[in-house]
Fold this sequence. Notes:
The protein is an alpha+beta fold. It has helices at 4-27, 30-33, 44-57, 59-67, 77-88, 92-110, 134-148, 160-176, 205-214; strands at residues 121-124, 127-130, 182-186, 191-194, 199-203, 221-222. The protein is built from 9 helices and 6 strands, in the order ααααααββααβββαβ. The chain has a 4-stranded mixed sheet. The protein has a two-stranded antiparallel sheet with strand order 1-2. The two termini are 29 Å apart. The mean pLDDT is 95.
Amino acid sequence: MINSARLHSDLSRLGRETSMMLATIETLSADEMTAPSLCEGWSRADVIAHLASNGRALVKLIDWATTGDEQQLYASPEARAEEIAALAALPRQELIEKFRASAEFFAEQSERLTGQLALEEVDLHGKVIPAISIVALRIAEIVVHHHDLDTAWTIAEADPDSQLDAVEAAVRTMRAKGAPGMTLVTEEGETWVIGDGALRVESDREGMIEWLSRGQGRHVEANGELPVLPAW
């Protein structure tokens, strides 16, 4: 059972990050939606469509944690890609409404996590996700992909704890995908060790998110050459 106070705190931050992203999305014209994002191969519409799809898919992790019945987020990688492409092709306002509805659905379903849990952990593409971190995972998705829209919004505008959620989600991905050994140190005082921890990489949370998620190393310092990282 997840502490109710923690869940409501996480959902409050998720609501804040989602509202900021929705405000950004609503400023984009139909043409601006089709412009490239920072997520390689995806337009801004693709990023928004991914989040609309992701909000409903992550509810399956909640189902898994609360029932104990294993769930797959998508039938296949191809099915995931087809769903995102279909959403991205929607008219601008329809896509925005899909994003909004998905966000509301995820938040509503997350309340189930305060009940009795069948499992303390679930698996996401080889990454072990504590049930208590499912909402934090969605927060990380929102923060990283808001950055991907490449607008005036910056990661510095995210709540500090939301930034931390994003770094932790990225570290989980790096470990699952066998990233080179690194010790990551933030100016805010956190440390994570990946593999043998050989390379020391330092930055603030914002710079660490940019590098781990999109390979933007402009704000990180290391005691050696920065490696090419696995995809987020």
